[in-house]
Design brief:
The chain is an all-alpha fold. It is built from nine helices and two strands; from the N terminus they run ααββααααααα. Strands 1-2 form a two-stranded antiparallel ribbon. β1 (about 40) and β2 (about 45-50) form a beta hairpin. α4 packs across α5 (about 85-100) and α7 crosses α9 (about 185-195). The chain is globular and about 45 Å long.
Length: about 200
Amino acid sequence: MASHRHEQRTAGRRCAVQMLYTSELQNTPVSELLENGLVLVESETETQGTLPEYALELVRGVEAHSEEIDRVLESAVENWTVARMPVVDRSILRVAIYEMLHEDRVPISVTINEAVELAKSFGGEDESPRFANGVLGRISQQIEAEQAASSDQEPSSAELGENLATESESIVATESAETEETAPAEQSAADTLEA
């Protein structure tokens, strides 16, 4: 059951990135593309006529929270502006940031791992995955710091380590359907979170 849900979300993320990319290239809001049926999304196995529900949820969320997402993205990059980023990297990061901020059903480390995998598929061979991992790792640290500050109780580094270890074990259990190729990226994301 968890494996099927994971596959649906993975497909949804892939479609969401493609829709956001198309939206930017055509300089047309995603909602307008959807209304006019101008989005054709190709999966690994076939061209789909129906968009996955999770993809629609993601693109609508990115569109609704675009200012907040870009503010967070801008705060996490050094010597870059959002406008200077390659369109595909920007689309991947926007989907991931929306998911990190507004999707409680998915652990942050899974979101980072999925974004790194999308960057491997769609972005530059070496630069895009590393860039996505680094940016999302910084955002993850910002989120953790804000959560710790809002609880008025700063957890000790030992407690943070235990929380990350527990989260990692949970991810391994719920995301066991991932291939061995994604394991190094997942470890890289976990390493970034622990840093």
